[in-house]
């Protein structure tokens, strides 16, 4: 009997389809994860909101659907991404009612602790034509609502048109809506940005969550950053804003951001921006732009703030326009191990949520192990639902690293490539091949220079691998589909020289 690729300590959609995390919030004593959901097939369809809650970020309880697309303004695409906020003890959801040529913002409220939600009879409450002629009505979505100094603000992804003072507002051509088989393709193909605008982020404000006014767009040309960030032929989807360690952070998932070297290797990416947001003008003065995850499967990251003031991030652990092997099991959609965020030395640092430590069992350690032009099995170090902590001295080897989910037939590689000066995540021999529209679907490269030592913290969960590099300075995430019964070995290897595994630890993750 074939075993399932369902994971043990990550959130998985139970059946049907799941994508973007929505409405991440700590409310009524639990962390809530709403998500884009099509309950009837393991493929993108008219969007509902699924709902998980957790007390430890490891066990996830499935609750009833929070939103269903039953209104005429939700026809075709449904109740799309958005956010949650508490007001007067009630839980409010702000979401996008999406149609192929029209996206509007709506609100729903729960008075029973965040279980059942009633949509406001005045929906949609925010439309682009009410706010500003700059904002294209077809691309105005994913509202992230937050409270600052007694004022509610909404950060949304949009296409922003170039409207000059004193010039007439150009009329948009009428486009015939076609079938929506993939929301990502539908947003970035056959769109002239000179007419419909370039991707940007916009800021709105309100005193009551229901009446909104336009503040301005966030992104303007800054000479130190590539124009690609300001002339995006797509949308900065699923934005988020928070302050951590005294630094303002914006998260977003830009569609169609061109690859730059080894950065932004996916067609659709996830990035973070550090800087300063002017709440009078909406302008965000960027001090640093970084890639949130350098692997294959990471999109639409959202955060929540815990009572202990930790900021926790979780993302969709899949990618658009790729194959999904779990569809054969009737489901598609997984989410990252939640990550604790900090800002250190001007960079966003991500560490695995600390609650995972209480599920560590069967500790095994080994090392040091020196290897010259060879591959060695590590006694007692194996498994596919495990955490592996390793410290590698790169020595003289041209390539060195770990092979996980390993057997004679399959292997997933995390290794240092001296010639490329990069850490490489290679899933070309992992098992079931992943196909997609990316130029390269089997390897991802992370620039790390020429280190003498690399520390890795790897989390394996049946078909998932997340690699935290050098204490969370970088992360690489990817799904792989090995043989569940046999692909469990862990090996250390070096090519064309000598490297050393100075220490390695393994913990089974038992939930």
What can you tell me about this protein's structure?
The chain is mostly beta strands and 511 residues long. It contains three helices and 32 strands. The chain has helices at residues 128-131, 183-188, 193-196, and strands at 16-27, 30-38, 48-54, 61-62, 78-87, 90-99, 102-110, 118-119, 135-148, 151-160, 198-206, 212-217, 236-244, 247-254, 271-277, 284-291, 299-305, 311-316, 331-332, 339-344, 347-352, 360-366, 369-382, 385-393, 399-406, 411-417, 422-429, 443-447, 453-461, 464-469, 474-479, 489-509. Strands 22, 23, 24, 25, 26, 27, 28, 29, 30, 31 and 32 form an eleven-stranded antiparallel sheet that branches. The model has no long low-confidence stretch (mean pLDDT 94).
């Amino acid at each position: 009997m074939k075993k399932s690729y369902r994971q043990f300590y990550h959130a998985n959609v139970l059946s049907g389809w799941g994508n973007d995390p929505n409405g991440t919030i700590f409310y009524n004593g639990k962390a809530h994860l709403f998500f884009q959901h099509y309950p009837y097939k393991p493929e993108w369809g008219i969007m509902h909101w699924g709902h998980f809650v957790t007390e430890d970020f490891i066990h996830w309880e499935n609750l009833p659907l929070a939103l269903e697309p039953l209104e005429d303004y939700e026809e075709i695409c449904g109740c799309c991404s958005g956010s949650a906020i508490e007001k007067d003890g009630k839980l409010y959801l702000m979401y996008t009612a999406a149609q192929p040529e029209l996206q509007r913002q709506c609100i729903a409220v729960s008075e029973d602790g965040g279980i059942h939600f009633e949509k406001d009879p005045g929906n949609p409450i925010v439309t682009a034509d009410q706010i500003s002629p700059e904002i294209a009505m077809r691309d105005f979505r994913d509202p992230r609502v937050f409270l600052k100094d007694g004022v509610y603000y909404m950060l949304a992804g949009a296409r922003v048109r170039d409207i000059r003072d004193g010039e007439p507002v150009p009329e948009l051509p009428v486009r015939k809506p076609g079938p929506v088989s993939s929301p990502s393709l539908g947003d970035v193909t056959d769109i002239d940005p000179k007419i419909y605008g370039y991707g940007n982020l916009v800021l709105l404000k309100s005193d009551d969550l229901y009446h909104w006014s336009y503040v301005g767009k966030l992104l303007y040309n800054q000479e130190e950053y590539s124009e690609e960030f300001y002339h995006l032929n797509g949308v900065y989807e699923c934005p988020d804003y928070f302050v951590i360690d005294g630094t303002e952070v914006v998260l977003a998932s830009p569609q169609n951001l061109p690859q730059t070297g080894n950065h932004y290797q996916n067609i659709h990416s996830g990035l973070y921006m550090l800087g300063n947001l002017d709440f009078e003008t909406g302008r965000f003065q960027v001090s640093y732009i970084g890639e949130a995850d350098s692997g294959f499967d990471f999109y639409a990251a959202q955060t929540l703030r815990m009572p202990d003031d930790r900021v926790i991030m979780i993302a969709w652990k899949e990618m658009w326009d790729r194959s999904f092997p779990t569809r054969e099991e009737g489901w598609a959609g997984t989410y990252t191990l939640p990550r604790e965020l900090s800002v250190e030395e001007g960079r966003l640092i991500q560490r695995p949520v600390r609650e995972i430590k209480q599920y560590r069992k069967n500790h095994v350690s080994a090392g040091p192990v020196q290897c010259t032009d060879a591959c060695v099995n590590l006694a007692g170090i194996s498994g596919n639902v495990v955490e592996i902590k390793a410290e590698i001295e790169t020595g003289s080897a041209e390539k060195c690293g770990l092979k996980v989910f390993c057997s004679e037939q399959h292997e997933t590689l995390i290794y240092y490539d001296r010639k490329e000066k990069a850490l490489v995540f290679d899933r070309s021999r992992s098992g079931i091949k992943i196909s997609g529209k990316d130029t390269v679907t089997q390897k991802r490269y992370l620039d790390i220079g020429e280190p003498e030592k690399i520390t890795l913290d790897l989390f394996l969960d049946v078909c998932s691998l997340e690699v935290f590099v050098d204490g969370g300075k970088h992360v690489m995430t990817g799904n792989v589909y090995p043989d569940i019964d046999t692909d469990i070995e862990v090996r250390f290897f070096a090519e064309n020289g000598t490297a050393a595994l100075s220490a390695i630890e393994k913990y089974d993750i038992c939930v």
